[in-house]
Amino acid sequence: MITQTRTEILPDHILSAILTLARRQANEERLVFRGHDYTLQEIFYALSRNPEYSLLQEFVFCESGPIPYSPALSDSVSKLQLSGLIGRENPDYERLFLNPAAEAFFDAVLAREFSPEARQQLEKIAADFYRRVTAS
Amino acid sequence: MSSEASIAVPLEERVDQFVAWLFRDYKTIIPRGPKVINDSLLGNQYFSKHEVVVIDCPLLQRLKRIKQTGLVYHVFPSATHTRFEHSLGATTVAERCFHAIRDRARIELGEAVANEDRLSGDLALVRMATLLHDVGHGLCSHASEQIYALLSDLREFKRKPEFSRKDPGEILSYLIVRSPTFQNWFQEYVVEACDAPLRLDTVAALILGKHPEKDKHFLAQIVSSPYDADKLDYIARDSYYCGLALTVDLPRFYSMISVASWKGYRALVLRSYVPLEQILFSKMMLFGSVYHHQKVKCLDSMLRSIIQHMQQNPNRCAIQFPGTRVSFAEPVEYLYITDDEFFNQIQGLGDPYVQEMLSRFLRRNLFVRCLQISRRTVVNWNHYGRAMLMDLGDQPTKLDDLERKIYEQLPASARSVMNPRDVRLSIPDRPRIKTEDAVVQTSPGAEPEPIELFFPVGQWTDAYAHNKWSSYVYAPREQAVPVRDAAISVLANEVGLEIDAAKSDRACHPA
Question: What is the pLDDT of residue B115?
């Protein structure tokens, strides 16, 4: 086959897994958080600096401007919204929430894509993410 | 060129081979002086002598044979404008942005923030970068970019931080400008013959949205940012040539931009977010009416059929050029061939499938949509199968598998008159406006703030996409009904989406 393609886990899969695990760890009925693009960019940039979080290398940050920016992260948020896995609360569109479909997607599809080591790492990232996003 | 061995050559080297091929036998003629080129949208455009040398070179001239909106002209007949006129137009818009910033900075800051020399100053660099920003576009512009973007070595490039924000065509533009062959030609005929001492490294960096000096970051933003000259030109140009009455009030936009210190950079700021709203709405309208028009996506899918067939049958389907042959095995091969050449050259191929598809394009006997997959037709739209469907847009192998499954599900009578590639599932890309470093400064001296605090740019885009986005299954008209039925069955089994055939039929009319 000439069209060489990568079949690895997509960035939005990682984001979806982090959000799902964060909700489960927080034991909240519904995960809701401020989801401005610039806020999420800041949080994930900080997380990606942790060498233990190698999965976050999928969110490549460009540092050539005033703020580090990962198009893959913004695109993942858009994709999860269009996929119906996350939504935004009207009318401010400031707060993102996780839909039940994300949980089902994680259990039926994503869980088996991640190795036990990757799953452990995701659990750590999810906890770190939740701490930061609730503090922002 | 199309052998798998060629893929082992680094992308930068393959790009240089392409530039050397393009400039083979080219005799550069130095013009007597500058030129005024008239444009249907922007009027008289002034180009300096050294810019005319670049405009006349094969890199820019080939853009005359690449339509700005790919195959859209099959749907909007007047959309035959090219990457060439867009490149010239964007260069003019970039200069107008530059002058607007210069004037405002003089008044507000009392200083000259950039050198406006047209031969060697910042203005010259911005203009040259904008002029060259699209030279990495190939066959049918974005229609083929969607295909080669998924080839492995470009995806690897996207993983490098400096390239992560850029689309594949822009990465190729950067690599072309950085190629030794172009650098040598530029040094001899632009820098020396025209006495225009421009640093091509800086030009290339600007194409990536980067300037080596932090206090000149705004220059990079004129070339590449959420409201760059490229966007300002193509939104106005595409809507004009498609006949859509969209408004981008450029004079108003120019009056609303300035520069300010922000996080250690001198950055472009908006004094009002209204012009950006206008850009956003116009871009959304273009997505809904043009770029994501169901027939345009059908044409893109049919082009994908031909290219996949040529990729998989290189011995029979490679296009021969002097010194090279093209079978679309790797991204640079898409540069060798332009729109007109593609449809002319494949006429000479004896391959029956290519001939049949070519005939469909020439006689506009296009595939038809037989199934619509959208929030209006999917019964269980909140099922995670929607995520699996969206994933197919990023995973071409899985998309191919699903299309083949639909084909295999067809009755033998239908399969006997169809090629497996006659079943096409289109997963349109998500419309997006990257807000990145878009900031508003309400008055001189005020702290610049992210645009999202003023209006939800990305969220509006997402809300629009949520309501307007549709995926379609396409097939030859005669087989639309069996393909619809097979697709409904396969999509239910493979991704769990249940589609209401009656609702879909109201949009698609397959019978």
Answer: 96
Residue A131 C-alpha, separation from nearest chain B C-alpha, in angstroms: 23
Nearest to B153 by CA among B177, B172, B173: B172
If contacts are CB pairs under 8 Å, which of residues 114-133 in chain A contact chain B? none
In this prediction, does ipTM exceed 0.90? yes
Q: What mean pLDDT do residues B206-222 have?
A: 96
Q: Under an 8 A CB cutoff, do A75 and B164 touch?
A: no
Q: Rounded to a whole number, what is the distance in Å from the CA of B154 to chain A's nearest CA?
A: 10
Question: Is the Cβ–Cβ distance between B23 and B181 less than 8 Å?
Answer: yes
pLDDT tops 70 at residue A86: yes
| CB neighbour class for B276 (10 Å; exposed up to 12, middle 13-18, buried from 19) | buried
Residues in A closer than 8 angstroms to B462, CB to CB, are 78, 81-82, 88
Any domain includes A26? yes
Q: Which residues of A touch B381 (CB under 8 A)?
A: 84
CA distance B138 to B148: 10
Whether the predicted pLDDT of B2 surpasses 70: no
Give Cβ neighbours of residue B318 (< 8 Å, ≥ 6 apart): B2, B310, B325, B326, B327
**Cβ(B114)–Cβ(B102) below 8 Å:** yes
A123 within some domain:
yes
Each residue of B469-503: pLDDT tens digit? 999 999 999 999 999 999 999 999 999 999 999 99
Q: For residue A93, is it within any domain?
A: yes
Provide DSSP, B122-173.
Answer: HHHHHHHHHHHTTTT--TTTHHHHHHHTTSHHHHHHHTSGGGTTS-HHHHHH
Report how far residue B474's alpha carbon sits from residue B406's, in angstroms, rounded to the nearest whole number: 11
Q: How many domains in chain A?
A: 1
Vertex B7 angle, CA B21 and B167, to 5°: 80
In a domain, A4, yes or no: no
Q: Is B247's pLDDT higher than 60?
A: yes
Q: B174-209 burial string, b = 16+ CB within 10 Å, else e?
A: bbbbbbebbbebbeebbbeebebebebebbbbbbbb
The model's pTM:
0.94
Q: Do B387 and A70 touch (CB under 8 A)?
A: no
Helices (H), B133-273: 142-148, 152-158, 168-178, 180-186, 200-207, 217-223, 229-242, 250-255
Are residues B336 and B18 in contact, defined by beta-carbon separation less than 8 angstroms? yes
Domain range for A80 is: 11-135
Q: Which residue has the tokens 């100053």?
A: B121
Q: Closest residue of B to A104, CA-based?
A: B384
Task: Please give the average per-residue pLDDT across B382-388, as a whole number.
Answer: 95
Q: How far is CA B270 from the centre of its chain?
A: 25
Inter-chain touch A71–B164, beta carbons under 8 Å: yes
* Contacts B427 to A, Cβ<8 Å: none
Using CA coordinates, name the residue in chain A closest to B311: A2
Other C-beta atoms lying within 10 Å of the C-beta of residue B511: 8
d(CA B475, CA B510): 10
Pick from A74, A82, A109: CB nearest B434: A74
With beta carbons under 8 A apart, name residues in chain B contacting A69: 165, 434, 436-437
CB contacts under 8 A, B 270-309 vs A, are: 308
Which of A1-5, A86-90, B403-407, B485-489 is predicted with the least confidence, judged by mean pLDDT?
Answer: A1-5
